[in-house]
Amino acid sequence: MTEEVHIHTHGAVGHLSLNRPRALHALTQPMCEAMSEALLGWRDNSAVKAVMIDHAEGRGFCAGGDVALVRRSALEDGGQAGRAFFFAEYRLNHLLFTYPKPTVAFMDGVTMGGGVGIAQPARFRIATENTLFAMPEGAIGLFPDVGAGWYLSRLPGRIGPFLALTAARLDGAECLWAGLATHYLPSENLAEAKARIVAEPDRIEAILGDLSTSPPAARLAGNAERIDRLFASDRLEDIIAALKNDPSEWAAKELKAVTAKSPLTAKVALRQIAEGAARRDFAEEMELEYRLAARMILQPDFAEGVRAVLIDKDNSPRWAASTPEEVDDELVRSMFTPLPAGEEWSPFPAPA
Is 115 a catalytic residue? Predict the structure, then answer.
């Protein structure tokens, strides 16, 4: 176990509370494994009726995963420790997605990357005025993972590709509008919501409905038409051309965001999302994402992206391919192929 996750039961409710405030509760492998162990125990325990996931203190729900560790692994051990982290994280994501009991995620604060992976599988996903949601992996030369190929491909219109390519940050109202949240509660109501869920875990939906309020207007809704139009293609080159040809300030801003990201990452993400809606089940999505992760952490763009954003913090990455045209299409294709025998990802065994 680890002190970076508080694990409790309150009556008939299991409670996972992330406790790594200095890192905005970014996930480590021990945190993922501790949460999975607790969830597996509660899954087969008839006394536990529901599970709540939140953070213990600070302003972040969960800011992502421990990518600095993954970068060190890619440079020092050929990515073995990085693979082990993703294997454990994706098992946790899948366990939550298939969990037979109601789960409630309180996205009260920064919810990015790995935080998305533990919030989106929940049956009830609570946004507040503090919610800040994003998939920023393109800035570090990675791809939107933790099930993003499944979730983003199922959002309205072309919102999914837009979020993947721009790393746009959504507030709580926008999350509710897009379906990334199921309820919008003022943060001052969260303590009451948790107490009432503990008291009556069979009435979660009614409790959250009682405490919900109408959110502000969602800015994302106002931009949906131009997102659908300018991000219509699954080719990065087409999207960049459409943004360049649009005279609006909004298009210029999003063009800057798209072209700042790794072109390799963007091309992988577009294919991942395009194919995501046809995946058989969530396990198939996670199997594919593990292949991508195992390979992309060894690409120079990942080490360079983490350096630029998290280590030197100059935000001036020098990508291996600086334009979409320079990206080797065969390299992109190879990312999606099966791993060697014995190296593929697998979920926890289903209960007997």
Answer: no
Please write the tens of the pLDDT for every residue from 223-232.
999 999 999 9
Reported as a single tens digit per residue, the pLDDT across 11-68 is 999 999 999 999 999 999 999 999 999 999 999 999 999 999 999 988 889 999 988 8
Annotated catalytic residue 114: yes
Residues 6+ apart with CB under 8 A from 36: 88, 91, 92, 95, 348
Query: Which of 4, 66, 108, 137 is labelled catalytic?
Result: 137
CB atoms under 10 Å from CB of 120, counted, come to 23
Please tell me the CATH code under which domain 5-331 is placed: 3.90.226.10
- Residue 64 a catalytic site member: no
Q: Which of 60, 65, 149, 276 is catalytic?
A: 65
The catalytically annotated residue of 82, 109, 113, 114 is 114
Tokens of 153: 């491909």
**Any catalytic annotation for residue 145?**
yes
Chain segment 167-184, per-residue pLDDT in tens: 999 999 999 999 999 999
